[in-house]
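Run log // design_07
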């Protein structure tokens, strides 16, 4: 898994490397500079295109600036011109930053220019690549002084832009940014990604994110954080292996309660996704069976309420299947009928010990005083989360990680908060989902996701990992489909079909 760090956690990692592992801070800076140079050279000098000839590196006087000064040294000989523009004070530089500054200032191969006022901007070269090493992870959105003028100048320059560690003006913890924060095409982050790169404005300001290797295992970061993200390498380790003797009963049994006359498609997408992700048996209790439902799904025709939803009188029939299932998924296309919601409330009351996925209309049963259990997964979008918690949508968006963690603890369940990024937490372990694209911004995508999660949960994955891996595979399918279809034309049903082609 990818460890994701807040600013203080990054400092703790640095302190551990220096104080416990015995790696001198100047070696850490050297490794950061060299690794950043390798990433840049690989990015711009590895194909047949004409490589850029000039690079301008904007440095502050902190250790982020030290990384920039060191980077300039490693790029000499690869660019026709390596330019360094720096602000701040030599007296405030750490010994390792000053050593790299002194090299740049005394080198005949590097143009090193101190920027003292906006009048000095006319001396800046017209560089093809601009690197931001002004502030780094120790900064925030609360900029002041001359650096604002520098960032405003950079903002007007047309060039490929690279940030070292984190774009200047971006809060490394919250993703909140100053209006003139550096906007990067590529962010080379040190040791492990920072949380703010994936939140709020950080999503658009960071561009592609690559991690610089600092000379020791990045597994160390795992001990300093409880926030992670999955990648492809995690999939075979997370999914339980199937034995040769397995039967359908060993691979999970899911009962889905979903759909209504007006929203029959939601139940179809959910059930079909559940089958496609590998659940052994899938029963769909619905008031409106649909011909698009896969033949592997066993449809249970329910009596219909006056509103066209599942009637309360279906309780005994549905209960027959619920009792035999190890997972219940409830909500997609269910409708708002009180009769149906009363039925769901009774089913939940009688089966609170089972693994349950609540989505869409079923979330109407929850409020800030609800008491669930660790076997529950709820999958709200921001609007649904606002209704459940009583918090404003804006507050949730600006604090989506903390809100998800806090309310997972309060409600005693796993929460998957949909959005960019999707956040999953059981209050102890938190994962961001970094897969997916705007092709998923269509009605029905959430129904597919619920089916995937229920299918994974039925195969024995813990709730927090079922939700996290479900979100990852859901997004990965959408990403892979971009090679075949236009983002605008990818539909939720395409995601279901593509699940069978994922390599996991």
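design_07 sequence
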């Amino acid at each position: 898994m990818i460890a994701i760090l807040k600013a203080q956690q990054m400092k703790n990692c640095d302190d551990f490397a220096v104080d416990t592992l015995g790696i001198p801070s100047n070696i850490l800076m050297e490794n950061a500079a060299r690794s950043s140079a390798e990433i840049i050279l690989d990015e711009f000098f590895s194909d047949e295109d004409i490589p850029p000839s000039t690079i301008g590196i904007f440095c502050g006087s902190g250790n982020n600036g030290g990384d920039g000064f060191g980077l300039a040294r490693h790029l000499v000989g690869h660019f026709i011109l390596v330019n360094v523009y720096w602000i701040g004070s030599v007296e405030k530089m750490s010994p390792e930053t000053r050593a790299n500054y002194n090299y740049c200032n005394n080198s005949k191969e590097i143009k090193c220019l101190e920027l003292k006022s906006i009048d000095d901007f006319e001396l800046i070269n017209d560089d093809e690549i601009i690197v931001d090493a002004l502030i780094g992870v120790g900064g925030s959105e609360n900029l002041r002084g001359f650096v604002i003028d520098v960032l405003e100048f950079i903002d007007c320059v047309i060039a490929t832009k690279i940030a070292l560690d984190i774009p200047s003006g971006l809060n490394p913890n919250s993703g909140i940014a100053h209006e003139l924060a550096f906007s990067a095409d590529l962010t080379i982050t040190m040791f492990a990604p920072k949380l703010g790169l994936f939140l709020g404005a950080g999503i658009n300001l960071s561009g592609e994110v690559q991690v610089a290797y600092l000379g020791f295992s990045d597994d160390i970061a795992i001990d300093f954080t409880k926030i992670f993200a999955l990648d492809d390498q995690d999939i075979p380790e997370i999914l339980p292996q199937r034995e040769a003797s397995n039967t359908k009963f060993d691979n999970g049994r899911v009962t889905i309660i979903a759909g209504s006359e007006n929203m029959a498609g939601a139940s179809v997408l959910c059930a079909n996704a559940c089958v496609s992700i590998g659940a052994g048996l899938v029963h769909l209790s619905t008031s409106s069976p649909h011909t698009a439902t896969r033949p592997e799904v066993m449809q249970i025709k329910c009596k219909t309420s006056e509103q066209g939803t599942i009637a309360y009188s279906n309780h005994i029939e549905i209960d027959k299947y619920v009792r035999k299932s190890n997972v219940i998924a409830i909500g997609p296309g269910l409708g708002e009928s009180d009769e149906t919601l009363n039925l769901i409330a009774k089913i939940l009351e009688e089966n609170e010990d089972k693994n349950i996925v609540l989505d869409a209309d079923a979330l109407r049963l929850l409020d800030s005083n609800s008491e669930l259990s660790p076997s529950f997964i709820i999958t709200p979008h921001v609007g649904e989360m606002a209704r459940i918690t009583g918090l404003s949508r804006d507050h949730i968006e600006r604090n989506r990680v903390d809100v998800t963690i806090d309310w997972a603890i309060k409600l005693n369940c796993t929460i998957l908060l949909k959005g960019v990024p999707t956040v999953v937490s059981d209050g102890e372990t938190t994962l961001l989902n970094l897969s997916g694209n705007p092709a998923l911004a269509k009605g029905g995508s959430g129904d597919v996701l619920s089916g995937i999660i229920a299918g994974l949960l039925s195969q024995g994955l813990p709730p927090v990992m079922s939700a996290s891996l479900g979100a990852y595979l859901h997004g990965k399918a959408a990403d892979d489909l971009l090679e075949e279809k236009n983002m605008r034309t990818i539909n939720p049903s395409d995601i279901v079909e593509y699940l069978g082609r994922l390599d996991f």
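The CA atoms of residues 26 and 335 lie 62 Å apart.
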